Amino acid sequence: MTPSVFSVDVAGLARHPNPVACVVMGRRAPLAVIADDGRRIEGDVLIIRPGIEHRIDCAGGLTAMYLDGLRWAGRDPLAERLDGRLGALARDGMDLDGNAQLELRARLQGRDREPDGPFRTLLAMLDTEPMNRMSQLDLAARLGLERTRALRYFKATTGTTFRGYKRWVGLQHAARLIVAGELVRTAALDSGFADTAHLTRTFRNSFGLTPSAAIAGMPTIGR
């Protein structure tokens, strides 16, 4: 469950829901997360709840860190500022400090809510094998639960549906391939998408911009 980190020099992200909990930081200026009803939360470093439709104003660009598998229990239904120690951990985590990423995850989730070892192994398997065709029945067998209970447990533990998490893993894999220089079409097929249009549509719905716009605005990996 290593977080994915990327930076883009764009003025904003279109309306979208994050597939997983996401920490965002303005690269050169504070940013704002805006809900459909116009509610606005501003700050230097923010964490956004997964599954909530929003757009982002970020005139100075942004760095985003996606915390796969995190069941964030924050109070605000949209987003919250990360200040003090949490803000410092987020900044260090975006600089790819693994210890900071682990501590931030533990503080946000609470140690009593962390998934157990077998479940972490399951997530790691999905993360490292994006073409894995693990079915709902496979999931149930690995967890030792009836199918419906296994699906509920997965969502309760990660905050994301099993199907949504597998789609997210494919998106991450495609993004890495594109950054490495692969054609979008090749990245799409290698990550389990039907074609370029399928990947582009899913990418925009998940991140608020197209793959080509993301790569064009990505001067560096990390920050």
Which CATH top level class of the largest domain fits? Mainly Beta
CATH topology of the largest domain: Jelly Rolls
Spatial strand arrangement across the major sheet? 1-8-3-6-9
Q: Element order, helices and strands?
A: EEEEEEEEEHHHHHHHHH
Number of spatially distinct domains: 2
Helix content: 40-55%
Number of alpha- plus pi-helical segments: 9
What would you say the CATH architecture of the largest domain is? Sandwich
Low-confidence stretches: none
Largest sheet: 5 strands, antiparallel
Shape: globular
- What is the distance, rounded to the nearest whole angstrom, between the alpha carbons of the first and last residues? 20 Å
Q: Could you give the count of β-strands?
A: 9
Q: Overall mean pLDDT score? A: 87
Approximate strand percentage: 15-25%
Q: Would you tell me the structural class of the helices and strands?
A: alpha+beta
Over the alpha carbons, how many angstroms does the gyration radius reach?
17 Å
Report on the structure:
The chain is 44% helix and 20% strand. With 223 residues, it is of the alpha+beta class. It has two domains: 1-114, Jelly Rolls (Sandwich); 115-216, Arc Repressor Mutant, subunit A (Orthogonal Bundle), CATH 1.10.10.60. Strands 1-8-3-6-9 form a five-stranded antiparallel beta sheet. A hairpin with a 4-residue loop joins strand 4 (31-35) and strand 5 (40-43). Helix 1 (84-94) crosses helix 2 (98-109). The radius of gyration is 17 Å and the shape is globular. The two termini are 20 Å apart.
